[in-house]
């Protein structure tokens, strides 16, 4: 089996997964409970694992490790991006049953734009090697910024895409279910859901500036870079609904992600002096993700326990006889 076969298999799996999502999982708009979301997460992760097994038998252990490392990096960075999506949904007051459709179309747009970004980026890096140093420096700068910033504030109304859309597109002020456009008095109008979709698409392009260069630090193989990105993006929507109510528990995740970006940035700067083996990169990424999540959970539980103890009424002393 060669790379051409892997591309074909990936294409078939991608189309089949979208058909399942659109016509089986997405039969009607509804609020997705956590249990259903976790099953969807398991489904998308299983697809990525099965494709990784195919890469192992077709391309060997090194390529399989590259795919797994790139997938973990992209998926973990996507978790941080979900905070922004949650803030945007809250700002625009998007009905919960409509959030799924917005994320679906947002993911389809991300598949298209990521493809342009990835293949253009690989071509540029292969032609102008010094760009690796520039991308490495950008990742280190981003890592420092993530650690030093206080809180991530999102201002959708300042998004240039949203401002431009509202200026040139006739927009309705109320939601109409999961519809992106409606006719009012014979005129076609965009619903607020369409504005939310534009916001998500523009934010994903910004996210790609961080995540795609991070994967370039692992490999420049177009198959590995693109498929790992797309499999991570496909599972992003289910992951959003699985942990939407648990974001507060992952306070230290952003620090773990910042260290990962810094590590990959340093790896790219050292590429001509010493190439860090992929198994080491995979181990560092896995330890940082698990460590930051576990630390977040432990601290949250201790704080919750301390709060419950502080709020509980003092026990009455036994009466003296």
Note the topology.
Elements: H1 3-25, H2 34-59, H3 61-92, H4 96-127, H5 131-148, H6 160-168, E1 181-184, E2 187-190, H7 192-216, H8 222-234, H9 236-243, H10 253-269, H11 278-311
Antiparallel strand pairs: 1-2
Helix pairs in contact: 1-2, 2-3, 2-8, 2-9, 3-7, 3-8, 3-10, 3-11, 4-7, 4-8, 5-7, 5-10, 6-7, 7-10, 10-11
Structural write-up:
By secondary structure, this protein is mostly helical. The chain has one domain (29-305). The protein is built from eleven helices and two strands. The chain has helices at residues 3-25, 34-59, 61-92, 96-127, 131-148, 160-168, 192-216, 222-234, 236-243, 253-269, 278-311, and strands spanning 181-184, 187-190. It has a two-stranded antiparallel sheet with strand order 1-2. A hairpin with a 2-residue loop joins strand 1 and strand 2. Helix 3 (61-92) runs antiparallel to helix 7, helix 6 (160-168) runs antiparallel to helix 7 and helix 10 packs antiparallel against helix 11 (278-311). The model has no long low-confidence stretch (mean pLDDT 79).
């Amino acid at each position: 089996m060669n790379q051409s076969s892997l591309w074909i298999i990936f294409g078939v799996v991608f189309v089949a997964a979208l058909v399942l999502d659109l016509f089986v999982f997405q039969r009607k708009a509804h609020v997705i409970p956590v249990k259903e979301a976790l099953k969807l997460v398991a489904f998308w992760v299983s697809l990525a694992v099965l494709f990784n097994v195919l890469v192992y038998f077709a391309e060997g252990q090194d390529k399989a490790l590259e795919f797994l490392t790139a997938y973990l990096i992209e998926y973990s960075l996507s978790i941080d991006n979900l905070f922004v999506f949650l803030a945007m949904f809250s700002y625009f007051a998007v009905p919960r049953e409509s959030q799924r459709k917005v994320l679906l179309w947002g993911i389809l747009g991300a598949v298209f734009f990521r493809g342009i970004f990835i293949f253009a980026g690989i071509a540029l890096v292969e032609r102008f090697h010094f760009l690796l140093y520039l991308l490495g420096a950008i990742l280190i700068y981003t890592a420092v910024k993530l650690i030093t910033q206080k809180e991530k504030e999102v201002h959708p109304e300042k998004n240039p895409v949203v401002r431009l859309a509202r200026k040139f597109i006739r927009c309705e002020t109320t939601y109409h279910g999961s519809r992106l456009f409606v006719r009012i008095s014979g005129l076609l109008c965009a619903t607020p859901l369409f504005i939310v979709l534009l916001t998500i698409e523009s934010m994903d392009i910004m996210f790609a500036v961080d995540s795609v260069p991070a994967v370039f630090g692992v490999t420049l193989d177009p198959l590995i870079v693109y498929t790992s990105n797309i499999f991570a993006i496909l599972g992003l929507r289910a992951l959003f609904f699985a942990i939407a109510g648990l974001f507060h528990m992952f306070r230290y995740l952003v620090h773990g992600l910042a260290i990962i970006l810094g590590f990959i940035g340093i790896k790219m700067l050292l590429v001509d002096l010493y190439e860090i083996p992929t198994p080491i990169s995979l181990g560092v990424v896995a330890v940082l993700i698990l460590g930051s999540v576990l630390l977040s959970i432990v601290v949250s539980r201790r704080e919750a326990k301390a709060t419950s103890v502080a709020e509980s009424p003092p026990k009455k002393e036994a009466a003296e006889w």
